[in-house]
Design brief:
The protein is built from 16 helices and 17 strands. The chain has two domains: 291 residues, UDP-N-acetylmuramoyl-L-alanine:D-glutamate ligase; 143 residues, Mur ligase, C-terminal domain (Protein-Tyrosine Phosphatase, Chain A). The two termini are 26 Å apart. A hairpin with a 4-residue loop joins strand 10 and strand 11. The longest helix has 21 residues. The strands form three sheets. It has an eight-stranded mixed β-sheet, with helices on both faces. The chain is 41% helix and 18% strand. By secondary structure, it is an alpha/beta fold.
């Protein structure tokens, strides 16, 4: 069996965009494997935006303290092996294939027991928990796929439950209001756990605090128990002063762009302090600085080319696009700034474009290779409403869209212009490959 064989087998299962909300199938599978998710402490990271970046920062900080860490994130940008990381390195292809091969007999048993077979995400989640016990690791940092209450990752009872900022997304499965969505994400907070909660809309915050009270969890809230004391733009990222649960940490350089990443860093720091217990007082500030200096988040306001500059960002909903627009305005002075945008058909394309319109000079609408991608002509009709016809270009294929975007950015003679590629993870992943960036796994190393 090869990695291509594994990918082909996984592709026959329900994709991550199709769900039957239940923990029964994945719990059944993990039970046959000896419940590995109960054999390692888990930090679970839910939320709408900022999950991957926050999880990666938690991983980097924990590794800086000397712990061996397993990291599970989704979706991947280039190779499915990126999703399962042990001690800073994605599983080698051979180990990934072997891990899947060991599951095959159990997959057949579980598939036969249930009305619906295991999904792509459920299988990968089981592989991750099994890999972390096999490694072994001291702690697993696990990003929730969608929601929380019935997400496959939530088969584990997290010692620390992190909730990053909540906004509207996946309404078909999670609900139409902030409160309904927050209720789903609050499901990762279990009795006896420690909840670390980022700044939230009021409706979401009320639901989260109610869940904390119901299960008797301990809670730390951004802006109250911890937060960002100072955040300044620095060359290549942000210079932060953070207030954690056990002390203050100054002169922390974070090599990621955007004020929002400072808030993600504060949440990550609080999660690490909560996990380690804080009994010995503040963490060593040099270790905190070392951990954040090593943090990477491929596909999140990432510069992948210079002259003209090309950035990629996986914003795929209005909340993420608002954060992206703020970060572009705060951290850069590009003029012109051209957007290359490809959106999936089940997303709020209008809301995303409206959030980006104030910071983009022009927009080139396109589609990625994903079967779920919105038709570029449909996206163009929305873009014309938002931007006006004179600011919209249609390029059905992403390679052509990049060429159009670069040409528009070079109107200033190549000085000061830039392109930002956004709208979906699949659009960003394809753009990174076209621009020769290499796999996200390689970039993290």
């Amino acid at each position: 069996m090869t990695l291509a064989d594994v990918e082909a087998a996984l592709a026959l299962r329900w994709p991550e965009s199709r769900l039957d909300p239940s923990l029964e199938r994945v719990a059944d599978l993990l039970g046959l494997l000896g419940d590995p998710q109960g054999s390692v402490p888990v930090i679970l990271v839910a939320g709408t935006n900022g999950k991957s970046s926050t999880a990666r920062m938690v991983d980097a900080l924990l590794r800086a303290t000397g712990l061996r860490v397993g990291l599970y994130t989704s979706p991947h940008l280039d190779s499915v092996t990126e999703r399962i990381v042990v001690d800073g390195s994605p599983l080698p292809e051979e180990a990934f294939v072997a891990g899947y091969a060991e599951l095959v007999p159990y997959l057949q048993v579980v598939d036969a027991r249930h009305e619906h077979p295991l999904s792509f995400f459920e299988v990968l989640t089981a592989m991750a928990y099994a890999a972390f016990v096999e490694a072994p690791v001291d702690v697993a940092v696990v990003e929730v796929g969608m929601g929380g209450r019935w997400d496959a990752t939530n088969v584990a009872d997290a010692q620390v439950a992190v909730v990053t900022p909540i906004s509207l997304d996946h309404q078909a499965y999670l609900g139409d209001t902030m409160g309904e969505i927050a209720a789903e994400k609050a499901g990762i907070v279990k009795p006896g756990s420690f909840a670390v909660v980022a700044q939230q809309p009021l409706d979401a915050a009320e639901v989260l605090m109610r869940r904390v009270a119901e299960v008797g969890a301990t809670v730390a809230r951004e802006g109250l128990e911890f937060g960002v004391l100072a955040s300044e733009q620095a060359f290549g990222g942000r210079l932060l002063t953070l207030r954690g649960l056990t002390g203050e940490y100054d002169d922390v350089f974070l090599p990621l762009h955007g004020r929002h990443q400072g808030h993600n860093a504060a949440v990550a720091l609080a999660a690490v302090e909560a996990f380690l217990g804080g009994g010995a007082g503040p963490l060593d500030v040099d270790l905190v600085r070392q951990g954040f200096a090593l943090a990477r988040s491929p596909g999140r306001l990432e510069i992948v080319r210079r002259s003209p500059t090309v950035l990629v960002d996986a914003a795929h909903n209005p909340g993420g696009a608002e954060v992206l627009a703020q970060a572009l305005a705060e951290s850069f002075t590009f003029d012109p700034l051209v957007g290359v945008v490809g959106v999936l058909a089940d997303k709020d394309a209008r809301g995303l474009l409206e959030a980006l319109e104030p910071v983009l000079t022009d927009v080139v609408v396109t589609r990625s290779a994903s079967a779920r991608a919105l038709d570029p002509d449909e996206l163009a009709a929305i873009a014309v409403d938002v931007f006006g016809a004179d600011r919209v270009v249609v390029a059905p294929r992403l390679p052509d869209a990049l060429d159009e975007g670069l040409a528009l950015a070079e109107r200033s003679g190549g000085v000061g212009g830039a392109v930002v590629v956004t709208g979906s993870v699949t659009t960003v992943a394809e753009a990174r490959r076209l621009l020769g960036r290499g796999s996200a796994a390689e970039q993290e190393g």
